[in-house]
Amino acid sequence: MGIESKFTQIIEIQGTIHKIKNIQQYGEHGFYKRQLLLKVPNGNYPQIIPIDFLKDKSALLENYQEDDSIKVSVNFRGYENNGSNFVNLVGWKISD
Questions:
Q1: Which of 1, 6, 48, 68 is most solvent-facing, going by the fewest CB within 10 Å?
Q2: Closest listed residue to residue 36, CA positions, set 27, 46, 23, 55
Q3: Taking CA 94 as the corner, what is the angle to CA 60 and CA 77, rounded to the nearest 5 degrees?
């Protein structure tokens, strides 16, 4: 029993593109990402879900625009930074 060193959970999220942000570059080692804001229905209060597309996966967003309905396959990743815990959704596949 215990936690495996590699934990990956795949989730599919369906919604409408709220916004696609510009590519952001970090550091000197060529790391970059692009963030998608996906609007997901939730009763009277739709949720805006940020999903990161890392490096070459950011090109997946090139064929889409605001208000397109899509389904995104994501992995979730958690990490600790300066005593705070965070969870990121990382996109790796988009379908109509």
A1: 1
A2: 23
A3: 90
Q: What radius of gyration do the chain's Cα atoms show?
A: 15
Query: Does any domain span residue 14?
Result: yes
The whole-number pLDDT of residue 76 equals: 85
CATH number at 47 reads 2.40.50.140
Model pTM? 0.83
Q: Quick check: is 46 in a domain?
A: yes
Q: Where are the alpha helices (DSSP H) in the chain?
A: none
Q: Is residue 62 part of a domain?
A: yes
